[in-house]
Specification:
The protein is built from six helices and no strands. By secondary structure, the protein is an all-alpha fold.
């Protein structure tokens, strides 16, 4: 998927070399622009930018949520959504180019995750104060489900 462009350019260069051997004397085919290196650098830049962007989002999440657990939960949305997107692209044979990767809007994914997690944290805190005790695992699951459904209905 990542090296589809590189493979196509490689086949074109190979084919041009074959054609060059079949040319009449005095006629020569010269490859003057091989963009495989450009494709490699572009892919490396995209991967680097995705990683740096993801790390920046994680840092900001930890700063604003002020809870390590909530920050980790929200941060997990980024690599998981990317993994699902890449798996879907691979399954449907969609190449990874700037257009297809640009369609994956991490801001929307992170925004939704932040809203859901923040609402869950708020509702858990309210429930603990109301009951004046820690919640059982079943109570926690019930509050988290209700908080998630509450936010989902708002959208």
């Amino acid at each position: 998927m990542w090296d589809h462009h590189r493979q196509v350019v490689g086949r074109v260069v190979d084919r041009l070399q074959q054609l060059g051997k079949a040319m009449p004397p005095g006629v020569k085919i010269d490859v003057f622009y091989d963009c495989r290196e450009l494709a490699d650098r572009t892919i490396q830049t995209a991967i680097k930018n995705l990683a740096e962007g993801g790390l920046s989002v994680v840092a900001v999440l930890f700063l604003f949520l002020l809870q390590i657990r909530a920050g980790r939960i929200v941060s997990a949305a980024i690599p998981l959504s990317l993994l699902v997107a890449i798996a879907g692209m691979r399954y449907f044979n969609i190449s990874a180019n700037l257009m297809s990767l640009g369609a994956i809007d991490f801001r929307l994914i992170v925004d939704a995750a932040v809203v859901i997690v923040e609402n869950c944290v708020r509702r858990l805190s309210e429930e603990r104060r109301k009951l004046a005790r820690s919640l059982s695992p079943e109570e926690r699951r019930s509050v988290i489900l209700a908080a998630s459904v509450e936010v989902r209905k708002a959208g």
